[in-house]
Amino acid sequence: MAIAKAERLMNLALCLLGTRRPLSKRELRESVEAYLEAASDDAFNRMFERDKDDLRELGLVIETVENLDGEIGYLARRDSNRLPPITLDAEEAAALGLAAKVWQQARLAGAASGALQKLRAAGLPEDVDPYGAHGALEPRIPVHEAAFEPLMLACRDRRPVVFDYRKANAVQPESRHVEPWALECWRGHWYLAGWDRDRGAERVFRLSRITGKVRSRGTRYTTPVPDVVTVRETVASWAGESADRSARIRLRSDAGYPLRAKATAVRELGDGWEELEIPYGHGLDAWLVEFGADVVVLEPAELRADVVDRLRAVAKG
Fold first, then answer.
1. Alpha carbon distances (Å) from 96 to 112, 159, 255, 264
2. DSSP notation for 18-40
3. Adjacency order of strands within the sheet including 295-299
4. Which of 95, 107, 110, 249 is the most buried (most CB within 10 A)?
5. What is the pLDDT of residue 92?
6. How much is the mean pLDDT over the chain?
């Protein structure tokens, strides 16, 4: 069985690499002998989807293209699947090993381990243990949101998605049609940056507010994807990292230590309260809500109103 699957994957990879135009499922079924032997269309579709995912896990870049008639086709461009020789010194190998350890508690653990095995085959120094100890600190990036994996794959494959999203100040979620660009982690929370088709503008979505399943749409992107630096700046701005004003808040003396780290001025008020002046930018209201009754916004008025609206939405469930 293992040999038969390996042969089927090899034949599919050769078909995708050898074509100059996208091939439809029908054409691929006619080109791969194992697919012709499938008992039904459903059996073929299941087999093809598994094989396609397996090839992608092995590193083959497979593009999904929709033609003018709306038919979906697949191909693997040679220039996208050709890598230069890989040479790594001990320090570079250690850095990659540390990056792989970051994901050991996430669903990317298997992919990270597989990537290191491929680097071994490509010339990773044999005397370097990428999983060995590199210091007293051992990084972890937990990923609890169910939306992470489908969105990660959608970003990789450049596939638009649809999901239900509940804003912090809304009671009910609403459907969003998004062309995903990249996933970024800020302050322990994961965010998706992308192009919101309904609003015709770039948007950032916090993964913990995505409800239900992330559904893929087999269509092309309508806008170009910015470079990674621009995407990170977008996420930073929407996550509240860019501030152009100041806000005054009251904070309980034994709470809100992340807010204290941001404070530009602190004044004792007595009775277990302090007054802080902190940078005010997009997303600050969502952050302040997380501290509940330990924070009271004094000014500006619009920030106070936004926080009150979010708290009311939470109270309504």
1. 9, 28, 37, 37
2. H-SS-EEHHHHHHH-HHHHT-SS
3. 265-270, 273-281, 243-252, 295-299
4. 249
5. 73
6. 80
Q: 35 and 47 in contact (C-beta within 8 Å)?
A: yes
CB-CB contact of 256 with 294 (8 Å)? yes
Read off the pLDDT of each residue in 270-276 and give the average, rounded to a whole number. Answer: 91
Q: Which amino acid is at 33?
A: E
Give the separation between CA 222 and CA 258, rounded to whole angstroms: 39
**What is the pLDDT at residue 134?**
47
How many residues make up the chain in this entry?
Answer: 317
Per-residue b/e over 49-61, b at no fewer than 16 CB within 10 Å? eebbebbeeeebb
In our burial notation (b when 16+ CB lie closer than 10 A, e otherwise), range 91-116 reads eebbebbbebbebeebebeeebeebb
User: ∠ at Cα 206 (200, 212), nearest 5°?
Assistant: 90
Residue 21 has pLDDT above 50, yes or no: yes
**pTM (two decimals):** 0.50
**Alpha-carbon Rg of the chain, whole angstroms?**
24
- Under the phi-then-psi rule, with left for phi > 0, alpha for psi from -120 to 50, and beta for the rest, what region is 199? alpha
DSSP string, 210-243: EEEEEEE-----SSPPPPHHHHHHHHHHHTT--E
Tell me the percentage of the chain whose pLDDT exceeds 70. Answer: 76
Q: Which residues are paired to 278 by β-bridges?
A: 247
